[in-house]
Amino acid sequence: MSLPIARSLPRSLVRSYGTVQGPASTAIPNRIPNALAEAVTASAPRTSWTREEVAQVYNTPLNQLTYASAAVHRRFHDPSAIQMCTLMNIKTGGCSEDCSYCAQSSRHDTGLKATKMSPVDDVLEKARIAKSNGSTRFCMGAAWRDMRGRKTSLKNVKAMVSGIREMNMEVCVTLGMIDEHQAKELKDAGLTAYNHNLDTSREFYPNVITTRSYDERLRTLDHVRDAGINVCSGGILGLGESDTDRVGLLYTMSSLPKHPESFPVNALVPIPGTPLGDRKMIPFDRILRTVATARVVMPGTIVRLAAGRIALTEEQQVACFQAGANAVFTGEKMLTTECNGWGEDRAMFDKWGYYPMKSFEKPEPKQAPSVTPTPLDEAETVAPAAASS
């Protein structure tokens, strides 16, 4: 059964670009999917996405998808504002998890030396440096499975959080799994956001990690959200997953009770000594398609270019910004991999007309785009494209 698209969609988004074969080899016009058409004209985010709808959006031809995602971006955000975030590894290596992409797992021989947690004053000094270079969000990561039995560590993290908030910076941490009591303590200390990535689809997840279940990750997100802390959760592209798995990740995130405040898009940086150390960088079109789909299905969320951005050209980064990405990690380093520097990013922003987002600010569009509804003589039809593997 075919579905009519929204009649107010601009005609440039509903032009036919070919046909696909339907049942009994019946040719069906392959036009803008109904789910995408509705998203472009939506006035608010929704959490009722189905997996089939997300697949429709993801599989839209890329030129049409990025055109639509740019329109959505301008409805919900100032398209010139980019959030600058700096990430510090406050406790390196020695993690008991077996994440097949991670240099910090004690199960992999990567040559990385485990360290103790950084002193509070050292972390606060790094945050001051980040702020002086334009970052407005400071993120801290510790390599361990969870916070059980880490009362001293939690006390130190809370001191870091409080000190960074006194600098009028947003602050995010990623500390593995936490329970509801730990989440409340972090909230009381002033934590802005908690990062806990789902990494990939539920179906593909066991191929990447076996020491922590998908449901355990989701429970941590529940604890964070219930404590009133913003959820930061995204994925890693290039783990060997298919397009269907990327759709699965986006479906899970977009159908949560509340969309995450931020969605990091990581591209795998292969680390020698890890099980995925010999993989190649994922093709850029898959990164761009994921960014654009995330913008469409989670219109109010900040979409952040995270690990692997350093491998993208300036033009590829700008293509992601135009498709809806509006945050980056910038500074001296990621957790264990290289990062684009502040000076490099400032030069890119100046060249292309972007500016840093302020702390605790989500700039609204300066002027909503004017779209004149174009009546259609007859109802258009859609046919979802099949997900490739």
Secondary structure topology:
Layout: E1 19-21, E2 27-29, H1 34-41, H2 51-58, H3 62-76, E3 81-91, H4 120-132, E4 137-142, H5 151-165, E5 170-174, H6 180-189, E6 193-195, H7 214-226, E7 230-232, E8 235-237, H8 243-254, E9 262-267, H9 284-297, E10 302-305, H10 314-323, E11 327-329, H11 342-352, E12 355-356
Parallel strand pairs: 3-4, 3-11, 3-12, 4-5, 5-6, 6-7, 8-9, 9-10, 10-11
Antiparallel strand pairs: 1-2
Helix pairs in contact: 1-3, 2-8, 3-9, 4-5, 5-6, 6-7, 8-9, 9-10
Region (Disordered): 360-389
GO biological process, one term: biotin biosynthetic process
Protein name: biotin synthase
Gist of the model:
This protein is α/β, with parallel strands linked by helices and about 400 residues long. About 35% of the residues lie in helices and about 15% in strands.
How many domains? The number is: 1
Task: Determine the strand fraction and express it as a percent band.
Answer: 5-15%
CATH architecture: Alpha-Beta Barrel
User: Unreliable segments (pLDDT under 50, ≥5 consecutive)?
Assistant: 1-12, 14-30, 367-389
Structural class: alpha/beta
Q: Do you know the CATH topology?
A: TIM Barrel
* Largest beta-sheet characterization: 10 strands, parallel
What Rg, in angstroms, do the CA atoms define? 21 Å
